[in-house]
Amino acid sequence: MARACGSPILAMGCFLVGAVINLVLDPIYIFVFNWGVKGAAIATVTSQIMSAVILLVYFLKKGHIRLRRKNICPTLPICGQIFAFGLPSCMIQVAVTILQIELNKAVVSCEMAGVGSEAALSSLGIVLRISSVVVAICVGIALGMQPIIGFNKGAGFEHRVKETYKKAVGAATVVSVIGWLICELFPAEILQIFGMNEPASMAFGIKCMRISLFGLAFTGFQVVSAQYYLAAGQAVKAMLLSILRPLLLMVPLIHIFSGIWGMDGILYAGPTADILTALIAAGLVGYDSRKKRKGV
């Protein structure tokens, strides 16, 4: 909401303030106060409260949209719109959670010679963390695109909508390709940052990173396309593209491929899902583009 009100720096600052407070309080609560894991939990909650307080003050005192008691009462039409356009983002989180559960179960059931399930889970966890960094940057580009798309779509400036989408796809693709190249060229160095040094685990981790993240180059296009449909008011298509990779493709592919090729099948499920998602997204965008040119 702060970003939509023209205060993107404040929105970013709230997250940074929370992160910094968390980093400072973690060692104090864990080691100085000897609270252990409980201290880490308290530090996290404290940082979230501080971020929330900053935003609350903004919307009570300074924001273009003010928080007022008369506006808190929900109305059905507005709630319906919020639900429709918020559902894709919600489903992404649900889909990612289900994917993580199914991935962990599949890894535990597919033991690999010389590599235990804990080491395999650690390697895949690192891979997911690295991919999430690339995805987060692409999401940032897509979120920056959204208000521009929404405004020009409403104003009827379709040429601006098309230009904005192309530039966002281009920028996100550059980020994705750079992320993919780094993972393919320097897997050992990245794994060492996460504290992985044991030879067998390192060998599997390198293999895991190079195979699982092979489709990372297509991530930017997928993310931007999903957010484009959301900004254009096409919530169904946005939700379809949002859950296509993690839920509709990745989960069944993990079980099918692991049943045929074991652990290698789990690794190849990721790039297969990435490529299929990119092809489907490209087909959907291309179909809509042809319809617009024909005036349908």
Features:
globular, 296 residues, mainly alpha, 0% strand
Topology, element by element:
Blueprint: H1 8-32, H2 36-62, H3 76-109, H4 117-155, H5 158-185, H6 187-193, H7 199-212, H8 219-231, H9 235-261, H10 263-293
Helix pairs in contact: 1-2, 3-4, 3-9, 4-5, 4-7, 4-8, 5-8, 6-7, 8-9, 8-10, 9-10
Structural class: mainly alpha
User: What is the end-to-end distance?
Assistant: 34 Å
SSE pattern? HHHHHHHHHH
- Largest sheet: number of strands, sense, barrel closure: none
Strand-residue proportion: under 5%
Could you characterize the architecture of this molecule?
With 296 residues, the protein is mainly alpha-helical. It contains ten helices and no strands.
Briefly say what this structure is.
The chain is mainly alpha-helical and 296 residues long. It contains ten helices and no strands.
